[in-house]
TrEMBL record, chains A, B, C, D:
It comes from Streptomyces ovatisporus. Keywords: DNA-binding, Transcription, Transcription regulation. Residues 40-59 bind DNA. The keyword Iron-sulfur does not apply. Residues 17-77 form the HTH tetR-type domain. InterPro entries: Homeodomain-like_sf, HTH-type_TetR-like_transc_reg, HTH_TetR, Tet_transcr_reg_TetR-rel_C_sf, TetR_C. This is TetR/AcrR family transcriptional regulator. It comes from the Bacteria. It holds the Pfam family TetR_C_11.
DNA sequence: CTCTAAGCGAGACGGTACGTCCCGTCTTCCT
DNA sequence: AGGAAGACGGGACGTACCGTCTCGCTTAGAG
């Protein structure tokens, strides 16, 4: 996919790539310093050594600029193969948490999400730039686990499949985000292990064929010892 | 400590309780209409039929006003006894989700949380007003389940106990919030059921005595059919 | 004229004379400190150790309060008989200037006059409280000079008489005020003497019967030496 | 000193001269309509068809704006040569009074002066913008009269000279201002003539060599008839 | 010698204007 | 054409006073 864009006009002086990078850096730095609410275009521009005009030539408003700057941070999320489902989950939990604990991400993610609650375009923007990117990791991990025989293969209905992936994604991302940003407690190895244990057992049940799942409630905690 | 509650000696004209209520209502209504970002003190005041100064006499700024207005919404969260752990979990998930889906909560919660990422006082405010209030529900549900024999009694170490409650809280609240606000998908009965199933199995494992928890990873999905 | 007021009601607690005095003092002190523009009722009240209500119970607004406080200062103006018209003029000039140089008067007079330029009621108030009181001194001095034979007796027309008194008053008060407040130079003995000399010669001409007055322009300065 | 006046290197969008003029006009109009006390920046801005910020970009506060607007009015003061000292004095008196009677000047001058009583910078501002400009007229008139032989040439001491000019200035300006603003009576031809007569005789005496001036007090009013 | 109408301190109230900050747009000149 | 500089129209901010309005307490004179 080299360049489907139909020749984007090449007249006049080209945009400075240097400016671009400086702006991204300045935006992230400013987010750390003052947060979304007090972040001003003027300050970003000044810090980047650039005129305000230059910002507006690239992004239509504050929101877009910040989302753009934040989204890039999510690119580094990866899912190294640790050989087991448990290992993979713990890995992603810890690496996701590590990212969220960096102040620029911390401050930015929630700010951007909050802004999105009454801005559908921004919400779509976030979905593309952040959510889908992360969801891909869940899929990848699941496939590996299935290959290893740790999880049953895909259900018949692809719709049901997607629902399951979405659920797992919301549980993992939700728990990590909530602990980091709302409870404001660190996601350390201990927490990651406990969470993984919880998830792992749930996963097995959730992935099992329908009609069996609700067994948990009756079985009680004596279940395992039988 | 000479006087236990010495009648705070109110002098001068007392604050109007009417105004207080009108402001809270106006704030929530305004949040629905325009969202956090465009909510203005002037508009809230006008809508409440009150002078802007009256707002500032009670709350030092927009943030505090909104947190206050939003926090009250969390008071209505309850945990009706549905007779089983599964029922209780589904109940709280759905009622929490229902609350989050109401536009005023939707817009406000994240906004307020986002604001808190660089405002420790606000963060403490949130913890008191919202987080602790919710955590209480988790405790309550767990006690009921223990009484019913659905979950094992408290672990020996109270520290470990607290860790577990915190974990469960982050998982429930996180998943619901994430699905509602980030994934922007509805929390319907179907999702609540699937989530509950997942959580239920995880819960049993997580609540079990240490040293057994990690069994899940090896056992695989064939576990149940053995 | 002992009390034409038809018994001004004597029920209830009478107004505190102490408060009255404290308010007047506080007002004048505040005028010195911050000037009219920044003088606030709250500050005057606080400084007088009195509630704002107490101020408004006595004067309907800031303007009236200040005029009242300032007018009292003019009461002390007197015209001691120095035995000659020249002496009397120098005396009044210096004592008037001395009053104007006191910071509370300095700041207040112009402020009040300025305020009066678009407030006819206040203007009338000033005329009664300040202007007429001063004009009386001019009349008194003139009568003494006439008695001494330094000035001709009143003209036939009383209207013309009044015009003359007004003119003299405007010249004296105007010159002193202008030097003090606009030119912002001190009215010392030297200036007072020079001004008196100027006025004295003018006075003789102005007081002379009509039809002769314009002689000055032709006569030139050689006039006296002839 | 490499560059004597290096072309101040104007960068960025220049200030709109149109806006400048509109603001001055609006300020003067507003002064007439509502007076100093009720003049608001918002109203001036609206009337000028300009944003409030544009006002504050040019003047730091209401006071400076108004002084600036008013000072310009004094530019039109001139001293047309009427051929005689008497004529010149009457001319300047009447044209000065005419200016003061215009409502915008009326309201503004005193307000600005009042404000200056506790603001040394403003006072200096006024001196430069208004007082010095007027004093120049006195000098000019005196020189003409000296050339015509109506007044004696400058005294030996230049210091004494300056004192005399200042005195005359305070008398003329003071009398006109006082009559207009404090006594609140019109300066008509009749008053101007009477005042001029008074001043003219005083002038001759005051301009005469020292040691003779005080003669007036003894001579009495019979002086002229001898 | 009580009763009671007014005075009083305190401070909340509805308002108006302030002067500031930032937004996103627009000129102007320079590269 | 891009970019730096900065003025512009606009909107909201949070503050400061205004003059009014409860409150509950105090106080002196009328009954």
């Amino acid at each position: 996919m080299p360049s489907p864009a139909p020749t984007p006009r090449r007249v006049g002086r080209p945009r400075s790539a240097q400016a671009d990078a400086a702006i991204m850096d300045a935006t992230r730095a400013a987010l750390v310093e003052v947060g979304w609410g007090k972040l001003t275009m003027g300050y970003v521009a000044a810090r980047a050594g650039v005129a305000k005009t230059t910002l507006y030539r690239r992004w239509p408003n504050k929101g877009e600029l910040v989302v753009h700057a934040v989204a890039a941070l999510f690119d580094e999320l990866e899912l190294p193969d640790r050989g087991s489902l448990r290992g993979d989950i713990e890995g992603v939990v810890i690496s996701f948490a590590r990212m969220l604990q960096r102040p620029e991400t911390n401050a930015s993610l929630m700010a951007v999400v909050a802004e999105s609650t009454h801005d559908p375009l921004l919400r779509e923007h976030i979905r593309e730039a952040i959510v889908d990117r992360q969801k891909h990791l869940v899929l990848q991990g699941r496939e590996r686990a299935q290959a290893r025989g740790e999880l049953p293969p895909d259900a018949a209905s692809s719709e049901e499949n997607e629902r399951l992936v979405d659920l797992i994604f919301d549980v993992i991302a939700g728990a990590v985000v909530h602990r980091t940003l709302v409870s404001a407690e660190p996601v350390d190895e201990q927490w990651a292990e406990a969470f993984t244990t919880l998830l792992l057992h749930g996963l097995v049940a959730a992935s099992a064929p329908r009609g069996r799942g609700e067994g948990g409630s009756e079985g009680g905690y004596q279940d395992g010892s039988a």
